[in-house]
Specification:
Largest sheet: 6 strands, parallel
Shape: globular
Mean pLDDT: 90
Number of helices: 6
Structural class: alpha/beta
Strand order of the largest sheet: 3-2-4-5-1-6
Oligomer: single chain
Distance between the termini: 27 Å
Strand content: 15-25%
């Protein structure tokens, strides 16, 4: 099944991490991929100590998407297309039961990740693989294909008052 955590509220990645932990607790194997974020997300350090989870953190960081130049957007788009191909190859080499694509929905909505290519990748995955996608503004094509869609709605957030992201809380 396909799960999507979307919306402008906090907790999308946190929910996906919780789902991955639950799956690991049931002796499952997880592939955890991040788009858009750099490798400083705190959960990655814990995941490195766990068995049965493979991390593919985003090796390319451009900062906030709203600060990216047109050239950086085009470069990211080309890199993410290759990243999906590499991801499919890695998944086919091992026996994973869950795939987490953190911030894939945002990357699709911004045009940095080709939604059709992502859906094609999903079509090539085993039928019994659980797929978890996160990110703001999940495109309708993804929502239409999903079995679960949860929207995190922001009511209030410290970022609105200029508070910077805090390690261990927001990243």
């Amino acid at each position: 099944m396909i799960q999507i955590y979307t919306g402008d509220g906090k907790g999308k990645t946190t929910a996906a991490i919780g789902q991955a932990i639950r799956y690991l607790g049931a002796d499952g194997r997880v592939m955890f991929i991040q788009f858009l974020k750099d490798s400083n997300s705190s959960e990655l350090s814990i995941f490195e100590d766990l068995d049965n989870i493979t991390l593919m953190p985003n090796p390319w960081s451009y900062g906030f998407t709203w600060d990216m130049t047109k050239e950086e957007m085009e470069e990211a788009k080309a890199i993410y297309a290759q990243y999906l191909d590499m991801l499919l190859f890695r998944i086919q080499q091992d026996d994973y039961g869950m795939l987490v694509l953190d911030e894939a929905a945002t990357a699709c909505s911004l045009g940095l990740l080709d939604c059709a290519q992502l859906l094609d990748l999903i079509d090539q995955l085993p039928d019994d693989m659980e797929i978890v996608l996160t990110g703001r503004d999940a495109p309708e094509q993804l929502i239409d294909r999903a079995d679960y869609v949860t929207e995190m709605k922001k009511i209030k957030h410290p970022f609105d008052k200029g508070q910077r992201a805090r390690k261990g809380i927001e990243y």
